[in-house]
Amino acid sequence: MNGQWNHNKLEELCDFIIEVIKGNFTLQLNPANSGFLEPLIKLLNIMNEELNTLFHHTHSEKSYPQVNLITLFINLNLDIKYISSQSLKYLELEHEPKNLKAIISEKSFLKLEKLFKTLNKNFAKKKLKLDFLNGKGLLFKTQAELHLKNDRVGENEILINAYKIVYQNDRLEKYRKRVHSKKIKYPTRNRSILLQANRELIEKIHTYLLENIDQKFPGMEGLATIFRVSESKIKKGFKHYYGTSIYKFLQEKRLEKAHLLLTETERPISAIAQECGFVSPSHFSRSFKKRFGYSPSDVHRNPK
């Protein structure tokens, strides 16, 4: 359960960062209240507020205020009786929610529950802060006014007008449209599992190469047969995780081992070349000199 919560929270973080990249500085992350992500969430929220202030201060001559209004009717059970199409647009919702709990933060929901328990049903108007959740679970902080209404059958309904003043900027809007035209993706849960499996496979291949460094390399075709995957998957995966090709990696590790054996043992160069997987002493000498700048016979031997 905790692992699933962490995964969902990380997806929410990704959505938030993508919104910031798009130039949307009006949203906030829902607090985690506990766990290792809480400091990061607080930092990102502060960062987005600072970006919003900085951008509109820098381009103040081109910024102008716009009121984003969320309008809906609820009953005393917090069931939504009506929500405007504009509200759905602001909150990026595809379908009308049935209960207010689905679109406000837990903190705001508890605040309303407590308010309704103590509220005089004849109240005219009440002001409070409400944090709405958009379709991606990100916070849309608002100032809200609650008005008591009576419908035709006598059931009390409450009108909620929640608003947020958002500063618009033509330059920022052009940037947003340009970014929106591009698809920004991040790993889904299934893709994350796939990436994990790929990494484990490449780590197994890495271990196999180190354990068989003195053996003749079976070639990419041989590796593909041993691990039952395609050659291209091995090549791309190894390059991705280790930053080099398998051939270069193997050559480097063989030469490192050879250098160590030369400095710490008195074994013949030909025996060391064979133990490190080189096809011949001459091939070993050429590769060694190219890598270290001097030949194996020039190594100062200091056997233990």
Automatic annotation (TrEMBL):
GO terms for molecular function: DNA-binding transcription factor activity; sequence-specific DNA binding. InterPro entries: Homeodomain-like_sf (IPR009057), HTH_AraC (IPR018060), HTH_AraC-typ_CS (IPR018062), PchR_regulatory_protein (IPR053142), Tscrpt_reg_AraC-type_HTH (IPR020449). SMART domains: HTH_ARAC (SM00342). It comes from the Bacteria. It holds the Pfam family HTH_18. Keywords: DNA-binding, Transcription, Transcription regulation. Residues 203-302 form the HTH araC/xylS-type domain. PANTHER family: REGULATORY PROTEIN PCHR. This is HTH araC/xylS-type domain-containing protein. It comes from Christiangramia fulva.
